[in-house]
Amino acid sequence: VQLQASGGGLVQAGGSLRLSCAASGRTFVDYPMGWFRQAPGKEREWVAGIAADRTINYVDSVKGRFTVSRDIAKNTMYLQLNSLKAEDTATYYCRALGSWGQGTQVTVSS
């Protein structure tokens, strides 16, 4: 599967963004998908994911602010980022079936 992430940008603290991850090469079925992020000088960390049974989980630092969803008809996964903080600044990646998207930059100014 090939993944294309988009939707990043520069936003002020408290603002919102919606990231998209479009999949091609394989039709969406209920396989696990996830979002990760990597801030400068830090290791890549898992942020949110949809399990094969459709269970959704988040890292504690984004609970209540980020929402992950998936549109099977559009073969696209989304990550809605609300109430953004400076510490959310990172390159965001989507992942599925062993493949990574190319990353999309989110920069939050304080």
Descriptive overview:
This protein is mainly β and 110 residues long. The protein has no helices and eleven strands. The chain has strands at residues 2-6, 9-12, 17-24, 33-38, 45-50, 56-58, 66-71, 76-81, 90-96, 99-100, 104-109. The strands form two sheets. Strands 2, 4, 5, 6, 9, 10 and 11 form a seven-stranded mixed sheet that branches. Strand 5 and strand 6 (56-58) form a beta hairpin. The protein is globular and about 40 Å long. The mean pLDDT is 94.
Percent helix range: under 10%
User: Could you say which structural class the secondary elements and strand pairing correspond to?
Assistant: mainly beta
Largest sheet: 7 strands, mixed
> What gap, in angstroms, lies between the N and C termini?
37 Å
Number of helices: 0
Shape: globular
Low-confidence stretches: none
Strand percent estimate? over 45%
Tell me the series of helices and strands, N- to C-terminal: EEEEEEEEEEE
Based on the model shown, name its key terms.
110 residues, mainly beta, seven-stranded mixed beta sheet, four-stranded antiparallel beta sheet, 0% helix
